[in-house]
Amino acid sequence: MPSDPVSVGHHHCALDTRPLAHVHRSSLLRGESVRGLLASGATLLLLDQWTKRTVQLLTPRRFVSGVPFVYIRRVANLNKIYRSARARGVFVVLWFVALLSAIALHRSGMWFHGRISQIGLGLAFGGAAGNLLDLVRYNAVIDFIDLQWWPVFNIADIGIVGGLFLAFWR
Question: Domain of 140?
């Protein structure tokens, strides 16, 4: 290991001068990191799809409120761009580009080395996959959490926003 001696007070220690990428071995591609990322992503994806299906079965045409100020209302977000097969294909490609970019940033030694960051990435990619699956299956994103003062959203959206917050929180 290349090192330079450094004096701190009365103590001498060796300073590792290798590039950061060599200090942080690529843990995202090792088992423990991949498991956390995949587990959080798969859990979020399954939870998102299960809640959307449950809402579809239980609330076909009415509001439901079990919590004050939170209404459950199924809404198909029919943005015009979602109807284009080409645009949906571009979204799939962008999802994979984002995934590869996250892996590249991790391998460079710059980002996403903590367990929380990797779980956050999993949540964000799982949420994005949930909405992407809606686009491919229904040509729309299914939303159902209505706060009455914010646009209707879903579990995938929570995973994307919360996951990115965790991934970039240092």
Answer: 26-168
